[in-house]
Request: fold
Amino acid sequence: MKPDEGELGFPVSRETTEKLRSFVDLLLRWNRRVNLVSTRSAEEVWQRHIVDSLQLLPLLPETASNALVDIGSGAGFPGMVLAVATGRGVDLVEADKRKAAFLVETAARLDLRGVRVHAKRIEDTKLPRTELLTARALAPLPVLLHHARALLAPGGTALFPKGRTAEEELTAASRDWIMRVERFQSRTDPASTILRISEIRPVGSEA
Reply:
C-alpha cells in the first residue's frame, strides 16, 4: 500500500515506498518472535506506524544538517522511517538488545549506510550534539526535554508526536522548562498533536 500524496502533503518516491514495504515485511517476520509492535498485519503497520512517522517529514527544519538522533527507537519509528525517506544519517538509540538487533538487521537489509544503532540507555550514549531530535511514544514531555537539553546543539529542534495528553504535558513541563513550542495536528489521529520544540532551557537559566 502506498500513502496518498495529497493526504500527506509531500511526494513519496517509488524507491522509498519499496524500501518501506521491505521494512514492514521484515518487521512482521521479527514480530513473530520479538514483541516489536502490537499490530499484526501489514496494513495496520503501514497506517499506525509508517504513515504516522512519515508525517514528520514536512516538519523537519530546513536548516538542519544531516544529523538526526532518534531516542527510544523501538521498532524504528520514526527514526528508521525518516532515514529511508530522507537519506539522512540517523542515530537510533534503543536499550532493548533484541529491538536493537532488529534495527541493525533492518539497516543492513535496506542498505541504510548512514544509520547507526546504539544499544544503550539514552543517558549512557555519547553522541555529538545534534540539530534534530525525535522521539515517539517514549516518555512524558518533562523527561523528553531533559534528554533534549543534553543532546541538542544550540539552535536545535525536537519533534515529539504526542497523544491526548499533549497540553497537560506542556503545562507540567512549563514548571521547569522555557521553550518555543509549535503545535501541528496529527494527520493520522485527530486527537494527537506533533510538538516542534526549540530554544529549550531550564527555568531560571540565562537565554
Remarks:
- Helices lie at 5-8, 14-31, 42-54, 79-86, 97-109, 141-151, 166-173.
- Confidence is low (pLDDT under 50) at residues 1-9.
